[in-house]
Amino acid sequence: MFCRQCGTNHQREDKFCSACGQALSPEASVGRHRRSLPPSHKLSTSFYQLLTGAMAVLFLLLLGITGYFYVNAPSEEAGQPAPAAEEEPVTTTNLQTEEEEAEERQQLIEEFEEKVMMIETRYGGGSGFLYNEQGDIITNAHVINGAEEVQVTLDDETTYSGEVIGESDDIDIALIRVDELAGQTPLPLQTDEQASVGEEVLALGNPLGLQNSVTDGIISGVERDLDIPPYTYENTYQISAPVDLGNSGGPLVSELTGKVIGVNSAAVEGSSIGFSIPVTEIHELVDDWVKEEREG
Questions:
Q1: Which helix (H) or strand (E) segment is 235 a member of?
Q2: Domain enclosing residue 148, as ranges
Q3: pTM, rounded to two decimals
């Protein structure tokens, strides 16, 4: 037991403290024991406190890990990761559509080639196409180069003599009349709106004298202005469809509308860049020539 006064440890049968003389009693020993625990008991208490703290930290760590996986787990709304997209199978319908598009394109080319002519003069030549039911043919002014009469050859190699009824001094456009072609259906023209960049086109003509040639491409630019004396080209289409000597005067056809949208007129030598005069820029001028010829 312990002395209540000084805390000295005594045998249970001792009556007085050997250190301070204080009377010893069980109650005093118990009370002092409550106030001052033996060292071994203190060590035991510290161990349990440390163990309890460690278990608390471990519990919090496990709780945090569980919460992380709970928050990041895919919800029912999100569902499982979507399966890889399946490639669209090649079906008979798809093949038929591609074949139909190819047939339509071929039919369009054949119909237009019948109305595209080779224009020849003593100065050179180029291309042209049927503009109206009066037998008038549009071409470039630089193709006829001041000639009053020209030779016109159709796709079936039939040849006619044509008369120049209109020629501009500053816009590279001219009009030829072939009486034998009167009454034939002309090529459809797009006179109400401009084509757009990216639109797919066909360039028809007779490059280097090779009749019935067709190249394809897109409208790669719009509103291009050029100055090739003596002509001024304003708001022209820049095209990627290759054109060469002999293509001048031929039609530029939109695959989207199936109509003539321009007159192929110039190209950058050694490149695939060409230029075409929009029909919207010249149809009023050409109509004036037709009217003057009718009234004259």
A1: strand 231-239
A2: 111-186
A3: 0.68
Instruction: Note whether 130 and 158 are same-domain residues.
Output: yes
Q: Given this model, what pLDDT does residue 37 score?
A: 44
Residue from 127, 142, 265, 276 carrying the catalytic annotation: 142
- Same-domain status, 178 and 249: no
Is 142 tagged catalytic?
yes
The yes-or-no answer on residue 287 being catalytic is no
Same structural domain, 214 and 254: yes
Among 26, 42, 58, where does a domain finish? Answer: 42
pLDDT tens digits for 26-84?
544 444 444 444 444 444 555 666 667 777 777 777 766 665 555 555 544 445 555 55
∠ CA 217-220-221, nearest 5°, is 145
Q: In this structure, are residues 36 and 2 in contact, taking their beta carbons and an 8 Å threshold?
A: yes
Spot the catalytic one: 136, 172, 240, 244: 172
Q: Which entry of 213, 220, 240, 248 is annotated as an active-site residue?
A: 248
207 and 180 share one domain: no
CATH at residue 241? 2.40.10.10
Tell me how far apart the alpha carbons of residues 80 and 69 are, in angstroms, rounded to a whole number.
15
* 180 and 247 together in one domain: no
Ramachandran quadrant class, 135 (left: phi over 0; alpha: psi -120 to 50; beta: rest): left
Residue 61: CB atoms within 10 A of its CB come to 10
Same domain, 169 and 128: yes
175-207 burial code (b ≥16 CB/10 A, e <16)? bbbbeebeeeebbebbbeebbeeebbbbbbbbb
- Model pLDDT for residues 163-199, shown as the tens digit of each residue: 999 999 999 999 999 999 999 999 999 999 999 999 9
Q: Which tokens is 126 given?
A: 């180029």
248 counts as catalytic: yes
Is residue 226 situated within a structural domain? yes
Strands 213-228 and 260-267: unpaired
Overall number of domains in the chain:
3
- Residue 47 inside a domain? The answer is no
